Amino acid sequence: MDNINVIEPNGKLGVLIVGLGGAVSTTFITGTLCARKGLALPIGSITQLATIRLGKREENRFPKIKDVVPLASLDELVFGGWDIFPDNVYEGAMHAEVLKKSDLDLVKDELELIKPMRALFEKDYVKRLEGSWVISGDTKWEKMLQIREDIKEFKAKNDCKRVVVIWCASTETYMPLSDAHADLAKFEEAMKSNSHDIAPSMCYAYAALSEGAPFIMGAPNLTVDIPAMWELSDILNLPIAGKDFKTGQTMMKTVIAPALKTRMLGLEGWFSTNILGNRDGEVLDDPDSFKTKEVSKLSVIESILQPDLYPELYGDVYHKVRINYYPPRKDNKEGWDNLDIFGWMHYPMQLKIDFLCRDSILAAPLCLDLVLLMDLAKRCGFSGIQYWLSFYFKSPMHKPDVVPENDLFIQYIKFKNTLRTIIGEAPVDYL
User: Fold this and answer.
1) 291 in a domain, yes or no?
2) Is residue 388 located within the same domain as residue 336?
3) Under a CB-based contact definition with an 8 Å cutoff, are residues 24 and 168 in contact?
């Protein structure tokens, strides 16, 4: 990564969102529009608010990331995307009930102009939703080609020099890796033959990459976490990132688990449960969609605690995750965690966490950061899985021969050291 030739972010950047009218998307768009007008602070956005140490500590250089890293300006972002409902972004935000009407009205005129394109949707993959604004076609290949045309038309209509596509739509039903995902040729044939192994999200990812757009997977769907997509991204020299935005409960797990491990405290059990009432909660009420989310959430602790290295402390951990649909809470999720831990001479202790969070409020700044950083990655010539962005995901993608890193603090160091390298500064080793 030495001597990276970064192309400057000149011109408009198109931000195409799958699930344009959903809670996360409408919150992301509204907050960004307000931030660029000076009407709100982009709290939670590392690219906009965080500083980065450059050089030795005695140099006292702590500029903001956005002041030294060549990121696209918020003023250059143009929003669009697809949804299974025809509501414009203002109407979608009102339905989601995340933000107050008084906040939405600050940028109402702009929100009303952002209308979704028809979505590629199949009920088999999201059983709790009914889509009324969907594209038609005999095969998934044909539908994918329509998505490609949508990207081309959006880019031309809005005079965008570059585009990033981000998935903020629902969690699809669980899908294991299959032969259709083994390589690009098999994947393309599976699309043309309408194989059930090709989920709608995979068609979006293929279309995005084929049109030169980096793709971000914000749900735990398999999508780009397959050899066929790794192959495509390498061929086209494009970055991919995922999966599953790290927002509330799992963010806390990636903080607490490293704390236990650094102190060599033992863990017997970790029980996690959530109540959530938005459309995401409704979708996850279906067991097949929940399994996809469950696999993502369960993967975190083991990779951090390394039970194979510390069998006495973590060799027999009972880890359970539950998500319960509870409509009265809407987007205000509550996550409870109970940890049964043990210390000196195996004496038992407990740790309790009750996180009353707002799911979309936590996810929105991640969307902004990831869009800007994936655009940066493309302009740096990076391709394939962007390991340096693992900080943002519950279940960061990795190839089979790569050990995943889920420790939030190690992820953050890797993230900032990559930024330092991009701008020609020395990484910080803290020695």
Assistant:
1) yes
2) no
3) yes
Distance CA 354, CA 334 (A): 7
Cα distances (angstroms) measured from residue 63 to each of 35, 50, 368, 371, 385 = 20, 9, 20, 21, 28
124 SS3 class? helix
Amino acid present at 295 = V
Do 373 and 229 fall within a single domain?
A: yes
Q: Total structural domains in the chain?
A: 2
Judge whether 215 and 196 are in contact, CB under 8 Å: no
* Whether the predicted pLDDT of 19 surpasses 70: yes
Tell me the pLDDT tens digit for each residue of 319-345.
Answer: 999 989 999 988 898 999 999 999 999
User: Among the three residues 309, 330, 356, which one is the final residue of a domain in this structure?
Assistant: 356
pLDDT higher than threshold 90 for residue 296: no
Q: For residues 249 and 298, is the Cβ–Cβ distance under 8 A?
A: no
Long-range interactions of 406-410: CB distance < 8 A, separation 24+: 406/254, 406/257, 406/299, 406/300, 406/303, 406/304, 407/254, 407/257, 407/258, 407/304, 408/251, 408/254, 408/255, 408/258, 409/258, 410/258
DSSP code for 245: B
Q: How far apart, in whole angstroms, are the C-alpha atoms of residue 346 and residue 415?
A: 37
Q: What is the pTM of this model?
A: 0.94
| 227 and 288 fall within a common domain | no
Q: What is the pLDDT of residues 114-124, one digit of tens each?
A: 999 999 999 99
List, for residues 58-93, the tens digit of each pLDDT value: 999 999 999 999 999 999 999 999 999 999 999 999
Q: Distance between alpha carbon 101 and the CA centroid of its chain, in Å?
A: 26
Element at 190 (helix H, strand E): helix 184-192
Does one domain contain both 306 and 178? no
**Is there a contact between 69 and 419 (Cβ–Cβ < 8 Å)?**
yes
Residue 379: give its domain's CATH number: 3.40.50.720
Which strands sit side by side in the sheet containing 334-342, from one edge to the other?
A: 318-325, 266-276, 334-342, 348-356
